[in-house]
Amino acid sequence: MRKTLLYFIFFVLNFVLVYGQDVNMQNGTISQCSGTLFDSGGSSGTYANNENFILTICSPNAGEAVVLDFTSFSTQNAADILTIYDGDDVTAAVIGSYSGTTSPGYVVPSNASGCLTLEWISNGAVGFPGWEATINCATPCQSIIPSIDSTNPPQDGSGNVTVSLGTSIDFFGSATFEDSGTGATYSWNFGDSNSATGQNVSHTYSAIGTYTVTFTVTDTNPTGCSDSVSITVNILGPYINVDPAGEPTSTYTIEQLVEDVLINSACAGVENINASTGSNFGSTNGIGHFISNGIAFPFAEGIIMTTGRADDAEGPETGILSSGGWPGDLDLENAITGLNVGDTNDATFIEFDFVPLANSISFNFIFASEEYGFYQCSFTDAFAFLLTNTTTGVTTNLAVVPGTTDEISVLTVRDNLYNSTCVSVNPNFFDTYYGSPNGQPEINSPIDFKGHTVSMEASSPVTPNTTYNIKLVIADDGDTLFDAAVFLEAGSFNLGGDLGDDITIAAQTAPCYTDSITLDTQIPTATHTWFFNDTEITGETASTLDVTEPGEYRVEIVLGANCQASDSILIEFIPDPEIIAIENLSVCNTTGSTFDLTINDTNILGTQSAIDFSVSYYTSLADAENGDNPIDPVNATSYNGSDGEIIYARIEDNLTQICYDTSSFEL
Q1: Domain assignment of residue 428, given as a range
Q2: pTM reported for the whole predicted model
Q3: Which residues pair with 212 in a beta bridge?
Q4: What are 617-630's pLDDT values in tens digits?
Q5: Would the N or C end of the chain have less CB density within 10 A of its end CB?
């Protein structure tokens, strides 16, 4: 009889541990998916002093995990502590330790057993109300892999989206689910207090800045299973943004500026990168990475080198920049006409060795200075791009006005519209002046300099597979006042193998359909494989390719076992306008007549849209070919013509006015 009673008691206790509703903190292991877990004092009492319990809670159902939802929690702070482990004993990883009113909240295990282990230790002081937690079970979270598949405008090479203020951005997202994505929700946080739901959404930012866009995918599991992925969006205003390089918080080191921003060749042997600026002498950092909207300032991205503080260059023009106070540069003083040793101050330079693949190199730059305007007739700072063939020792300054030998400075590129006390010099290479007299409003300046040149190209013939050194250097001349800067366009330092920017209608670089484009890697000694829309072009293995069809072209280049590169380019053509038909015009009048020339508009256009193409009339073929001296459209409807007179018609595209067709008819 005693054995039967003991067995019955054991059975009842075991039943309670598996299926009971409420549990007080104790030593042991329980398996249940409902009820409430209390401290040792139960639902109405307080826990006792000097307690030390370890309780493991598991789900009785295979493939499920126990979930605890703490609805109240109050213990003696930092003295009576509940520690929760992610597993079935105290050797598992600690989820957290809790005391005072810091509640564990909603606790879900991530281990294979689906169990949680709780360790409770109280001291010998006063007891507090303790805790209450609802016990549930749920299926463990499946793996969710969210993806921001694409954006429009597209992401750049760093995975960021950079657009001008007011531009709408399209985001396209998806996710891969371990089990099922049925009922999943897709949410976007744009980082500006705005959000949206759905896989594909659009958003327009209302303020310039850098934003983190987070895409979160959540499935239907009641535990709230989700995962997220983020990208960075740069919203640009009319002013450039500058990030000083090489500092602890910088995006780029000096080496990365050269290799990842400036150079555009996967095979270029770049080494021995060196730089110096004010921060090398305890002063300001004159080297930085900049981005812009590519509208107000010609370059969308690049490197800035200045004789002052790089991030002071952010627009608008707010007054004369004159920071500095560090040494000049001897190489610059030896290279520039009229400079003596010791003349320069505040020198900033970047130099490196490289091995060109092609027989020429080039890169794009803009020079800016605070001396434009008032001082452009008498003072100038100096800069140079010193290219040295390390085999011959010959050094050439590439910073010259294109087509001349003039070293670029305020004195050699200026417009007397902004200072009439001296004549203009190479004014076609000067771009914009901000301020009085005659300049643009200073608030419109994308950079904090009084004026800047147009984009110019520095170029030089080189010997392929020969080591060269280039030193890009700028300095103040004679004092530390009136800063100057050089902006180098990202990706423009072409050592060979680059097909250039996309040629598109939107960029106004597309040719007419009847024209052709020659692509050239400038590496004739390399092995080339050309592709058109991902299909190999049979027989095309030269370094050049003549293009007459729109589409995406790609070239794969092999120049030795350790040098393989590829580049692609999108090419568009402007549809050629065509004069579909044309008729002679006649009237029954022997004393002279007026003609409505525009009667031929419909004949000329045919099915071509009048929105995309324009028709005009001329009295000579030369004028029609050149688009000069058209008959006034007002007079074209009542043109005073003579018998037998020949009128010439021209149809041209409205976007570029480059592509046209001509024909003639008789009156």
Answers
A1: 248-489
A2: 0.62
A3: 232
A4: 999 999 999 999 99
A5: N
